[in-house]
Amino acid sequence: MRGKSEKIWSDVDWTIVLIYLILVSLGVSNIYSAVYNPENPGLFNLQTEHGKQIMWIGVSMFLGLIIMFLDGSLIRQASFWIYGVIILMLVVVLFMPAINGAHSWFAIGSFGIQPSELGKLGVALALSAHLANSPPAKTRMSPSISLSYLTHLFRVNWKTLVILGIPAILVLLQPDAGTFIIFTSFILVLYREGHAGNALLFLVIAIIIAVITLIVADTTFMLPFLKIKMGGKVGIVIALLIMALIFLLLIRYVVLKRNRPPLYRALIGSLIVAILFVNFIEWGYSTFLDDHQKTRIDLVLGKIEDPDGEGYNINRAKAAIGSGGFSGKGYQQATLANAHQKHVPMQSTDFIFCTWSEERGFIGSFFLVLLYTILLIKIVSVAERQRSTYTRIYAYCVAGIFFYHFMINVGMAIGLAPVIGIPLPLFSYGGSQVLAFSLLLFILIKLDSERKIVLQ
Amino acid sequence: MKNIDNRKYIIALIFTLIPLIFIVRLFYMQVVDDKWKERAAQISENKVITYPARGIVYDRNNTKLIANEVYYDIEVIPNQTENPDSVTLAGLLGISLEEYTEQMNKARHHSKIKSSVIVKQMPPDEFAMIAPDMYKFPGFYEVERTLRVYPKPIAPHVLGYMSEVDSGDIKRDSWYRSGDMIGKSGIEKSYEKVLRGKKGVKYYLQDAVGRETGRYEGGEYDTLAEQGDNIYISLDAELQEYGERLMHNKRGSIVAIEPSSGEILAMISSPSYDPNLLVGRRLGQNFGKLQQDTLIPLYNRAAQAKYLPGSTFKLLMALIAMQERVIDSTATFACDKSLVGCHNHPTARGVSDGVKMSCNPYFYQVTRRIIQQGKHKSHFKDAAVGLDIWADYLYSFGLHKGLKTDLPAVESGFIPNTDFYNNHFPSESNPYGEFRWAFSTIYSNAIGQGEVLLTSLELANVAAIMANRGWFYYPHFIREIEGGTVPDVYKTRQHTKVDPEKFSPVIDGMWRVVHEPGGTARRARVDSLDICGKTGTAENFKIYNGKRYQLKDHSIFIAFAPRDNPKIAISVYIENSGFGGTWAAPIASLMIEKYINGDVKDKRKEDRILEADLMPIEIMNYKKNR
Fold it and tell me: Which of A66, A150, B368, B584 could form a disulfide with B555 if both were Cys (CB 3.0 to 4.6 A apart)?
């Protein structure tokens, strides 16, 4: 018989632990470089950002250690309780004084905590608990464009929607659009669990249509051959109609006659949805989005270029990254992305990737991207080796959240995504995110380490 | 379910595809595309140019002619100011409230974080008065600039002036940036590249609001500004100053050359001005005034005015005729006043006599023999050939073709040739035409009255050629360039087509002009200096409203001294003042005496010149009305 403490550590996935340690230590050194102030050089100085980061990492690892000594079943049973506490925090925080125009912070002295970061953890736990107890998604209707199918979908999924929806709306009320978007990462989990149907495919198609719509919406062009001037939106609709016609002809001549009617229905349904969607995108864009949000989207789409005005952030960020070259300018040698020069705004939080890439060059940025990729793939493989549904779903939640943060943060720094203020997990400066992502990972490690004894 | 299990591959694919896109994009941004590196440099680096002090200009005796003086620009960084009281500050800076407001608005418009000039070029004494109060106005501070200063207020036409570069200057030479200063005339322009020195560059790192935060790469790419080379010019400041005093209230010019080197000792153009008027911010105030002045003081008469040479031209006629062997030194011609007017004098027996008495018919005859050599039966063809021979001789004296001197904007005089009378004279539309003219048509040139024109510089160079007996260096100012060499063109002797021995009778005549009774320039005599000279008196007229008005003659004198081993050659041209012997000759002699002896003995002669007001009547009237 092995001792209890031996059991705790024997099945821990040390790869994830190692990646975690590399990420947080590179993060601290990078923050140190970004905010280095010769008048205040101490590494452990709690007045500095790197000092605070170290403190938060310490707190996180201490909590992680506690988690390791807990029983996995305790976490599973406490899921909804944790969720409830965090929802409460999200409600209370709305009554806190606004910082930078958002009610996102519990401030304690010079320290602050953002419950929205923990919100992701709460949702991940609650969603895992909920989905693990739901019947497996095999007795489902085949997808079709019918009201009965839609009501069926709603009846099966309404609890999921509620679990996701409450914190999402509370976060939106702060307002914190960035974290709100992160909640859509759970669509990956639903997809994997067979709940979201072909939602992922539709999501990709929808994003493509949306991007095209936004690019051409306010342009006009001449129709070839016919001298008719038309708006971009009309053009898209015509393009969709032509595509529908092509599919119609394909169905007409390729598919067996008895199989045709449902395909015809699907085609017509899709066409109507697509055309409505085009109009909805344009309407939503001009109705719901603030001017600065529109500008951020237009910048990524390349519709506007304003290096010293609206495009200032992204222009400076790209210049910092691009100027790093192949091997970088060297540690503490950044001339754009550091706290001294301040060319790149928020260089220790949202744009931390710039400091890293400017100082470490392509070698460094490649390494960091690779590190996150390895972590993501590792979490997927961890998920897939679970016999416990709860743990598998939870692992996919963690993967999705990490992936979204990584994709949007790096994507925005290199100009492939609109500027959305969310941190690079475990790497950016920020106590709440370090705490939240550490807990996400430690809980995963704990649950995973019990994979051989937990069946449920 | 199997197909749901497959979804893990889709997810893994997404998790690798997005990072792959990022890596490709990063590789492109960081390694392939240089656009962002350039953009980063533009954002984070600031290139600051440091200006060198300009080279100093000394005269031949190491007296400073052009030096540098420190001035102060008052600059402001708008967002560092703390709501200064505009009235107090404007008063302190010595500008009006309106100007202060305007400058501040301009500065704010330019940049809130970078400095703009509020007051330009405050003299050191003015700055010293306000300096103790400057600390009360944060955001305002002084920047040292150097400006030219002329310790002696002389020779503005030679030294030139400086002003800000214009777009043409920048286009011609990318060395200049908007706001830089450049020599616009005179020595400042000719030796601009020597005097300007090397600009220094400092690369700073700047932060997002444009403040300097450090040196780029520890200053590795910085260069220091290097002061421009000092130069020594041939001017004799004392002589120049003396000449300008003599020329006070006279219109005309003096050019003095050291014959053995071609160095210009003095170049005086009168009326003149104080070169300090055209320095820095005074330039703007004074340039227009000087430009509108009816006395046109900006005009360099010595190098640009084309004058009739009058009788001084006769020297050249005698030399050419002897070289062409159409006369010898003993040639005698009667003073036949039916050919051309003359004064009463004994018959000139020989070239020396002709020069001494300046007999017009004598040189009519001499020149006729050059032009009409009888090589062609046709009188007209003969004249055409003869005139071109004559002109070629004159070209070899540096006339018409341009003296390669080191002043910008130097004009050449004019020597007519066959082509000119065939095709351009008396008017472009109705010229004489080929073989339609002969010596009888153009004889006035023989006595320097026709179409020939010389500048004072050319006249002085003729005097230098007489002194050297047949050769000259191009007249020039440069003597020494610290860290450079004087161009070879000023070290190469130019030879005229007249042999040295032909000069003796002419020089003998020039000596007698000054020293013998019956000579035309007795006033030029200075004991022991052996001045050799030749007077000239140029008739001239002006046309007002289609009517021709005879004006008072120009008084001309060219000379050199001493007769052997000459030290100075000079031309003096006093417009509309009378006979050559009356004014120009004594002025020349004073200059020569001053240069050789360092002082003038005959104070009466000096005072007569100093007190004379020879401003032409037209200008006198203008002055009265003013």
Answer: B584
